[in-house]
Design brief:
metal-binding; globular; 4-stranded antiparallel beta sheet; 8-stranded parallel beta barrel; alpha/beta
Length: 539
């Protein structure tokens, strides 16, 4: 009996441990590694981008904006001059799939087309709350709501489905103390109607929505405002989710989940409360990397040698890494203009993203933004406030207000670098004890970054086979030539690396798929010539 009990216990422990990691896998196609957030793009534009750019350039997946019905905000009370701000997407009215990004049919078609070219879709999921105090009205799908009650007919939710005074201990009903777990999880976040996720009815409605898009073929979810929900409630909701679509992903695959938990230290809620059942957004990654590249508090690139767990971040197996996101690039949501780098500081930003994509920590997410004159301004739109399609230029960049950082050569080429490097670890680290660093990813890729006030000019071990390589920061490999710089690696793996500190992009990066073959072709021609002479013999 004791033996049978032990075996059963071991089986239960095995199944429990397997379940805990079930939502950590992003389900990329083999050889793909990176997510891009196409912030506020339309579904038809995303489908086109998957087919025309993301698939061919090796991106793994797309984080999309919330696809469910939201409140329409014509004039935020604090700024009557701005209409349809971006954050209206984070004020749900129902779980109907109709927004400014498109209809349910367009959503389904986007998922199908992206999956067909090996690009996964991850849904930004807003399940902590409904709208804030924006007045009664109708949402983007026509559903009636009244946050003063509160009631949301499109679900439906009524006043009994929200956390009230019996759970929220503050007089205002809003969060007043972020060191009080009960307030953070049971009170309103910025006045947003806080759902009672302890109710089975609410859990079922959320799971129905998530299962609907799972059936359509999405690969997973970003869970917005996860720190404002009790871990036990999230675990219960995730437990109601179906496996991923078998036709696309095979049998028994669980949806990928990465949860927004802002944990910079010093608050009651910790990110490690959530890692058991999904990855967590590591906000310290972008903040600290920004501080290093900005040289805040005498930070230096050389300190990045153990970036990740060595900096007290969560395990890379549990983390989603990013330089900036749609919140903190605007100075809120753990933002800080003195730390966070964005496309507005393009030189430093490219250094940060290039390092992130070269460095083996977590699942990386690249930002793709639109420009804004004020932080609450919504995406580029026409006179009726319909989102404009993304304008794409002949040089692969975007225009008409769309920034498209993911289409910057320095960034999309580093997505390929990360794909090529695979699971190879860091090797051949070098630094000048200051702000010049270089390292290889095993024997597959090599990178050097110069953030100093003088040139980098060193003979460095690249770890790569002998050959002539195209630098993917300054250009591309086009056929059998380099459109930018070329770097010669000797038989001993060493190369003379020169990086000008005054360059717009003070970096170089090479990998084994951008080596030229003309040296080897010359050798083959020479050998064939000798063979021909030998066959001819004396005349």
């Amino acid at each position: 009996m004791a033996v049978r009990f032990s075996a059963s216990l071991l089986l239960l422990l095995f199944l429990w441990n397997r379940a805990q990691g079930a939502h950590h896998e992003p389900h990329f196609q083999p050889g793909r590694t990176t997510i891009v957030h196409l912030f506020e793009w339309k579904w038809n534009d995303i489908a086109d981008e998957c087919e025309q750019f993301l698939g061919p350039f090796g991106f793994g997946g797309v984080q999309i904006s919330p696809p469910n019905e939201n409140g329409i905000i014509w004039e935020p009370f604090w700024n009557k001059n701005i209409k349809r701000p971006w954050f209206e997407r984070y004020q749900p009215v129902s779980y109907k799939l109709f927004t400014r990004s498109g209809s349910e049919a367009e959503f389904r078609e986007m998922v199908r087309r992206c999956n067909n070219v090996g690009v996964r879709i991850y849904v930004d999921t807003v399940i902590n709350h409904m709208t804030g105090h924006i007045g009664a009205g109708h949402g983007t799908a026509g559903s009636y709501f009244d946050p003063a009650v509160p009631k949301y007919d499109g679900v439906p939710y009524g006043p009994d489905n929200f956390n009230r005074g019996n759970k929220c201990p503050t007089g205002s009903g809003d969060i007043e103390d972020y060191n009080n777990k009960e307030q953070v999880r049971n009170c309103r976040l910025s006045g947003l109607a806080d759902l009672d996720l302890g109710q089975e009815y609410v859990r079922n409605k959320i799971a129905e929505y998530m299962n609907k898009v799972i059936e359509m073929g999405v690969a997973g979810f970003r869970v917005d405002a996860a720190k404002h929900m009790w871990p036990a409630d999230l675990r219960a909701i995730y437990g109601k989710l179906n496996n991923l679509n078998e036709v696309t992903f095979g049998s028994g695959k669980r949806p990928f989940i990465y949860q927004e938990v802002i944990d910079l230290g010093g608050e009651a809620i910790k990110s490690d409360e959530y890692v058991e059942f999904g990855r967590v957004t590591e906000f310290r990654y972008g903040m600290n990397l920004g501080n290093v590249i900005r040289k805040n508090d005498n930070q230096k690139l050389k300190y990045l040698r153990n970036f990740g767990e060595g900096w007290a971040f969560m395990s890379g197996n549990n983390a989603l890494a990013f330089v900036d996101n749609h919140d903190n690039q605007r100075g809120h949501g753990a933002g800080g203009y003195g730390s966070i780098l964005t496309h507005r500081q393009s030189r430093m930003y490219k250094m940060a993203v290039v390092f992130m994509l070269a460095w083996p920590y977590g699942v990386p997410r690249v930002m793709s933004s639109f420009s804004w004159p004020e932080h609450i301004v919504g995406p580029p739109h026409d006179e009726n406030y319909n989102i404009k399609s993304v304008k794409k230029n002949s040089d692969l960049t975007c225009g008409d207000g769309w920034v498209c950082e993911h289409r910057w050569r320095q960034i999309f080429n580093m997505v390929k670098f990360r794909n090529v490097a695979g699971f190879d670890g860091v090797a051949n680290w070098w630094d000048n004890d200051n702000n010049q660093i270089a390292f290889s990813r095993g024997n597959k890729g090599f990178i050097a970054i110069n953030n100093d006030d003088h040139q980098l000019n060193q003979s460095l071990q690249t770890g790569l086979p002998q050959g002539t390589y195209c630098d993917i920061i300054s250009g591309n490999k086009d056929g059998n030539r380099c459109t930018g710089r070329s770097i010669q690696v000797g038989g001993d793996g060493r190369a003379q690396i020169h990086v000008d500190n005054s360059s717009e992009d003070p970096m170089i990066a090479i990998h084994i798929e951008v080596v030229l073959f003309f040296v080897y072709l010359q050798e083959i021609i020479f050998i064939n010539a000798l063979f021909s002479i030998e066959r001819m013999g004396p005349q």
